[in-house]
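Sample log: Gypsy retrotransposon integrase-like protein 1.
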Amino acid sequence: MRWDGGLRCYSIVVHKELMGKLIVAMHECLMHLGVCKTLATLRLDLFWPGMSGDVYNVLKGCTQCARQKPPLKMCCWPLQSIRVSRIKELVTLDVLGPFRPLVGVEYFSRWPMAWLIPNQSAAVITEAFLHGYVLDKRAPERLLTDQGKTFSLKLLKEVCDLLGTKKVRTSPYHPQTDEMVERLHRTLTSMLSQQVSKSQGDWDLHIPGVLAAYRTAPHASTGFSPFFCMYGREQDPPIESNLRRGRVSLRSTCPSTCALPCQASRHNSASWQWANERLRRLRVSGRTWAPGDKAWLHCPQVPVGTSPKLYKPWRGPVDVIQADRPQCVKIQFGRWSWFVHPSRLKPFVAPRVSPLSPLPKGRVSSVPEELRKASAEVVPQGNSVPPTGPKRLTSSPDESTTDAQHGADRPSKSRSPPTVVSSRAGPRPLGHVQIPTRSPREPRPTSPGGLATRTRSRTARFK
């Protein structure tokens, strides 16, 4: 029962075998809206116990919604920092779009690099890496790139094999693995925006100056500038050349002291990573995957000719076949298998509602026979009730005997079921139960003492 504009309205009690079918039908009529709107629409005319839980469980298995909507709760996975202990141990490369300079970072010293390239072909990128870093600093031990098309070709892999460099890649669609070069992109674009003209056509002329300024500034994670970590001394900026003329480098005084900046930088970097991991652990909220689980895979790449606003990014379901790594899960989709980050997966819930079969013949209805007979009665003047009071059904003999044994002056505690009435249009089908109420125009009945009595309406309950 609910109130609508001062009028008392009544809901239809739904049979348990029709609940799932009604939820799916209403969800499709509402064009796959969420749980709250579907539940609110159903409550306008329908009712059954546990309604909100049933709507949530049924809509959780909707395939169309699972392909389009993100998970209700975004998972936060723990950090797994990349640890380095010496210079030239790890170098990362990436292309800064849409300007297309090749950007690189040396992980231990945070030494930034940038080379202008005409295009993003594998030959151009490999040549820029060889002439810009390998011939100047020597080949690194590991080279980290994303899974872009230019970095995934065999040319760069063969060159790394000749140099003795191990080439590693990030997990697909997870740039957080290469977070240092991604953070450098933001810093470089912010510094370039302060130097370019209004036409923004001279951005390439300011790259050497921007890199020089970045190399001489102390880094927050190491506590030293990239130039100091790379060469063991500070570079004198032109504006302070006269002030630092008497400074002597560590390498010129004692070669054994060159290891002190490296040790301090290593300690500061480890402390910085530990603090970030500790803060991230406070927000960790992700499920644990096991082999045999089914999941939806997030694929953000929009096909050509498809609008990104109407694209459904979740594919699947996929099968989890390996989950022994902390930040990597191996999945299988058809005959293909590859590793992905757990943040790209969300649990797969099979649809819980199937087409319902008709009720078997000869089944007895759960509505009592007395209510079935009373459903044919028509009350005049719509839903109003005569002043004489509503017609009640006769209680059972057992209840009357019990009341008589406790005393005639004691009111009976037995609850009689409400009278089934119909609307002005005629008798309603079986199952529409209304509780009689007093008409707004009729006076309130009074007791023998002259005081007005309050009529109470009770909700019909069926077992």
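Observation: The chain has 13 helices and 14 strands.
Observation: The mean pLDDT is 73.
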